[in-house]
């Protein structure tokens, strides 16, 4: 899907959110015309997964007692044929590594969206990080492709260079917009935004369409302000008005295909 499709179809995006950024995430999904819904209640997962077009599981503030819940949520979504997107915040921190390993052992995932350090964990490649941030350097195409092969999921690696890969087909978007990394929650928001754009099918180009839309909105916002507070609101405003023709032109110019 593209931004016009999202505005027309208004897909419902169900997010098991962390407790840090849900309002911002919901607003990003809302301003592009999709329909956000957040829940952490096991008793309603089946019903909500039934009405959702995609399910996002963000483990940014996951607790031990919740691991079986997210496994159940991913299984319900899978049984209903709904794509599951995992956002494994700071996965290299030991408790989180154990939790995600347990999740992967019996849960289901179709897309993993993370920064380069988070994706490198799935690829079994060393990559420096500090908490929620990727701080190292590395071959992000290799990292994304290896993570895709190891997990069987479509990988959405975000950062200065965005990479989407299913292990065979890879696309990159190497456009630097520093301000996007200056506010907390842009990664969380991107994970749920991807959920809106894959409502008509889990394909690499659909995932890249979401990432390019978000990146272009960030680039536009950055031309109007460089202060984090006003940038946050400007980003929402740019997403609200962004035009599909602009996004398609941006993608034609900046997205590279790597087989
Ligand atoms: N240096 C950067 N230049 C351009 N875009 C960036 C940069 N860092 C992050 N982004 C963008 O910010 C968003 C969040 O990505 P990222 O910071 O990697 O996720 P997280 O917040 O989960 O660490 C993505 O759209 C990504 O493309
Ligand atoms: C600060 C923090 N702590 C646990 S989740 C979270 C938000 C992470 O947001 P993002 O990964 O989008 O920067
Ligand atoms: Mg993140």
Automatic annotation (TrEMBL):
<keyword id="KW-0067">ATP-binding</keyword>
<dbReference type="InterPro" id="IPR000417">
    <property type="entry name" value="Hyethyz_kinase"/>
</dbReference>
<feature type="binding site">
    <location>
        <position position="113"/>
    </location>
    <ligand>
        <name>ATP</name>
    </ligand>
</feature>
<comment type="pathway">
    <text>Cofactor biosynthesis; thiamine diphosphate biosynthesis; 4-methyl-5-(2-phosphoethyl)-thiazole from 5-(2-hydroxyethyl)-4-methylthiazole: step 1/1.</text>
</comment>
<feature type="binding site">
    <location>
        <position position="185"/>
    </location>
    <ligand>
        <name>substrate</name>
    </ligand>
</feature>
<keyword id="KW-0784">Thiamine biosynthesis</keyword>
<keyword id="KW-0547">Nucleotide-binding</keyword>
<comment type="similarity">
    <text>Belongs to the Thz kinase family.</text>
</comment>
<keyword id="KW-0479">Metal-binding</keyword>
<dbReference type="InterPro" id="IPR029056">
    <property type="entry name" value="Ribokinase-like"/>
</dbReference>
<dbReference type="GO" id="GO:0009229">
    <property type="term" value="P:thiamine diphosphate biosynthetic process"/>
</dbReference>
<feature type="binding site">
    <location>
        <position position="38"/>
    </location>
    <ligand>
        <name>substrate</name>
    </ligand>
</feature>
<keyword id="KW-0808">Transferase</keyword>
<comment type="function">
    <text>Catalyzes the phosphorylation of the hydroxyl group of 4-methyl-5-beta-hydroxyethylthiazole (THZ).</text>
</comment>
<dbReference type="GO" id="GO:0000287">
    <property type="term" value="F:magnesium ion binding"/>
</dbReference>
<dbReference type="Pfam" id="PF02110">
    <property type="entry name" value="HK"/>
</dbReference>
<dbReference type="GO" id="GO:0009228">
    <property type="term" value="P:thiamine biosynthetic process"/>
</dbReference>
<dbReference type="GO" id="GO:0005524">
    <property type="term" value="F:ATP binding"/>
</dbReference>
<feature type="binding site">
    <location>
        <position position="158"/>
    </location>
    <ligand>
        <name>ATP</name>
    </ligand>
</feature>
<protein>
    <recommendedName>
        <fullName>Hydroxyethylthiazole kinase</fullName>
        <ecNumber>2.7.1.50</ecNumber>
    </recommendedName>
</protein>
<dbReference type="GO" id="GO:0004417">
    <property type="term" value="F:hydroxyethylthiazole kinase activity"/>
</dbReference>
<keyword id="KW-0418">Kinase</keyword>
<keyword id="KW-0460">Magnesium</keyword>
């Amino acid at each position: 899907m593209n931004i016009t499709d999202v505005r027309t179809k208004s897909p419902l995006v169900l997010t098991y959110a962390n407790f840090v950024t849900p309002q911002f995430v919901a607003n990003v999904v809302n301003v592009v015309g999709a329909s956000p819904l957040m829940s952490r209640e096991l008793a309603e997962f089946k019903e909500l997964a039934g009405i959702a077009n995609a399910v996002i599981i963000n483990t940014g503030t996951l607790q031990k007692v919740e691991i079986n819940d997210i496994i159940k949520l991913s299984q319900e979504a899978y049984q209903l044929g709904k794509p599951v997107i995992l956002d494994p915040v700071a996965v290299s921190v030991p408790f989180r590594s154990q939790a995600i390993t347990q999740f992967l052992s019996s849960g289901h995932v179709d897309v993993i969206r993370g920064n380069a350090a988070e994706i490198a964990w799935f690829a079994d490649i060393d990559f420096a990080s500090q908490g929620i941030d990727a701080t190292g350097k590395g071959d992000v195409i290799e990292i994304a492709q290896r993570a895709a092969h190891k997990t069987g999921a479509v990988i959405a690696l975000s950062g200065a260079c965005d990479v989407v890969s299913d292990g065979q087909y890879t696309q990159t978007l190497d456009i630097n917009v520093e301000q996007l990394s200056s506010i907390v929650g842009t990664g969380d928001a991107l994970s749920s935004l991807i959920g809106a754009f894959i409502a008509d099918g889990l394909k690499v180009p659909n995932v890249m369409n979401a990432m390019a839309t978000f990146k272009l909105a960030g680039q536009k916002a950055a031309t109007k302000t460089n202060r984090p507070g006003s940038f946050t609101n400007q980003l929402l405003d740019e997403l609200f008005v962004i035009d599909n023709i602009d996004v398609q032109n941006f993608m034609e110019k900046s997205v590279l295909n790597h087989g």
